[in-house]
Design brief:
Chain lengths: ~260, ~270
């Protein structure tokens, strides 16, 4: 619970980097037939810049909804969302926020490099520049030799890397991930974790990832927000004070996993 | 960490999919087939009068005649031109209309019965209407091709719009992609294979019905010349015209449509090579 200071987002302190993401008293309900279901209640969360934060909880705890609210796809009913110190509805640099889905969502008619380029096509960047940046991003995930391969020619892990490259090509300051590796086998998932940490070391983007896997949370996160369902709310925030990279066999990691499991 | 993860090395490297259409034994089979057909044709022609079934040599002579006097080229181009105009009009109308029907459920439901109704009307009926409305002119053939091809294209495009993946739309939303880019970058590539198969079907049908239209509503074109040859009991010329049509359609199909399809849809998993 400690270590999280709620700063006043309206106060403009130029000396200090504002938190990457700040949620204040966020509520969200969905209409289900003629009854409304409260999915999020009174959620407060501060994600410090450049940190890796995990959102963990059982299904129905609203973690994906929370991620969608941060990404601006959903609007909260009440409360405030601030991205890089600016209120979400006034924030206009969404290209600095990337979103990685649970599945890879590669467009089957585009090559690997074409899929990465897709993320740059919302704006008006020149084709040549786009192609170069996309190649650089593929190189970052060590797939540059597969630039011309179509998704069907790639393995699950490779497709996941292409999706990662697509979410990194815009040079995001914030990377949001919704159970990004949950559909991969355990071994490939482990490789993707190493990949993510390596890239984080290089780029220092803020990462918020949703997971239901305590091991994933304990291995990657600086901070884990534990969510409980009905209505979804942040139950506790656990700081994981272990150096990265971590190994699942470390006793400290195991004890954090037990602690997280007890909290869910 | 390992520079190349084991999962990448273990993976099957990209195997280019070789088509098996051009293997030597396939070519041999094709030649044998043509030889057999021509042989049976020749044997059969020996015992019947030439105006019932002309032999291969007689047809070959007739073919050389219509090539030499320019008849073949003139009529083939005029028919092809009519088919192309009717087909392009059908595509220009069918593609946006099919997308509209797919994108808007209410409009789609409203127009749903129209398409099967149009499909059941025989091309001969369209030809008769066309003669009533347009007389003996290019418009008659173009109209018949249009009315035959258009419902086919609409049906296929409509079907294609139903397969647009909502996840891809969400991806574009997260990227803050403007609506028109979603149309060109997600809807269009999804619909393209459906449009293409519809267009291919429509072109084949259009080509066949154009001949029907020309036999009754035209004073030029392959269909007109076919009927004229039949009226004059020049069966050898009927055969010659038919032969050129078959060869040309096969040429367009194998030389143009198939390579174009292979190129456009190279991203699709090739079932044959798996």
């Amino acid at each position: 619970m400690n270590q999280i200071e709620i700063t006043d987002p309206t106060r403009n302190d130029s000396k200090q980097t504002p938190p990457a993401i700040q949620l204040i008293d966020v509520d969200k309900s969905f209409a289900n037939g003629n009854q409304t279901v409260q999915v999020l209640k009174n959620v407060n969360l501060t994600v410090p810049s450049q940190k890796i934060v995990g959102l963990i909880g059982t299904s129905g705890s609203g973690k994906s909804t929370l991620l969608n609210i941060i990404s601006g796809i959903l609007k909260p009913d009440h409360g405030q969302v601030c991205i890089s110190g600016a209120a979400s509805d006034k924030f206009n640099d969404w290209s600095s926020v990337s979103y990685m889905f649970q599945d890879d969502r590669l467009l089957p008619w585009r090559t690997a490099v074409g899929n990465v380029e897709f993320a740059l096509e919302a704006g008006s960047m020149a084709k040549k520049e786009r192609a170069q940046l996309a190649l650089d991003a593929l190189e970052l995930v060590e797939l540059e030799s597969f630039e011309k391969a179509f998704p069907y020619q790639l393995s699950g892990g490779m497709r996941s890397r292409v999706a990662l490259a697509r979410s990194l090509v815009t040079e995001p300051r914030i990377l949001l991930m919704d159970e990004p590796f949950s559909r991969l086998d355990a071994q490939t998932r482990g490789l993707m974790h190493q990949e993510l940490l390596r890239i984080h070391q290089l780029k220092h983007m803020t990462v918020v990832f949703v997971t239901h896997d305590v091991a994933e949370a304990a291995l990657l996160a600086d901070q884990v927000a534990v969510m409980t369902p009905r209505p979804g709310t942040i139950h506790e925030i656990v700081d994981i004070k272990l150096a990265l990279p971590r190994d699942i066999t470390q006793p400290e990691v195991t004890s954090y996993m037990q602690r997280l499991r007890a909290l869910i | 960490m390992a520079k190349q993860s084991s999962e990448v090395i273990d993976d099957k490297m990209l195997v280019p999919s070789f088509s098996r259409r051009l293997r030597p034994e396939v070519i041999g089979q094709r030649i044998a087939l043509v030889a057999a057909v021509v042989g049976i044709w020749w044997l059969s022609s020996l015992s019947v009068p030439h105006y019932i079934l002309p032999g291969p040599t007689r047809v070959w002579d007739a073919l050389q005649l219509i090539v030499a006097n320019g008849d073949l080229w003139n009529n083939l181009t005029i028919t092809l031109w009519r088919v192309a105009i009717g087909f392009v009009l059908a595509a220009l109308f069918g593609l946006p209309f099919g997308i509209l029907l797919g994108a808007n459920r209410r409009i789609g439901e409203f127009f749903e019965p129209v398409i099967p109704a149009l499909n059941t009307v025989s091309s001969a009926i369209w030809a008769i209407f066309a003669i009533i409305w347009f007389g003996i002119s290019n418009a008659t053939t173009i109209f018949v091709v249009f009315m035959t091809a258009m419902p086919l294209i609409i049906t296929n495009v409509w079907q294609g719009t139903r397969t647009v993946n909502a996840d891809f739309i969400e991806l574009a939303q997260v990227l803050r992609m403007p609506q028109w880019k979603v149309m060109t970058k997600i809807y269009l590539p999804t619909i393209l294979p459906y449009f293409f198969s519809g267009a291919r079907l429509a072109f084949g049908f259009g080509w066949r019905v154009s001949l029907v239209a020309e036999t009754i509503g035209s004073s030029s074109g392959v269909g007109y010349r076919l009927r004229q040859s039949a009226d004059l009991i020049r069966t050898d010329q009927v055969f010659a015209w038919t032969l050129t049509l078959v060869i040309m359609m096969a040429g367009i199909e194998m030389g143009m449509m198939k390579p174009l399809e292979n190129y456009l849809f190279r991203w699709k998993k090739d079932a044959e090579t798996e």
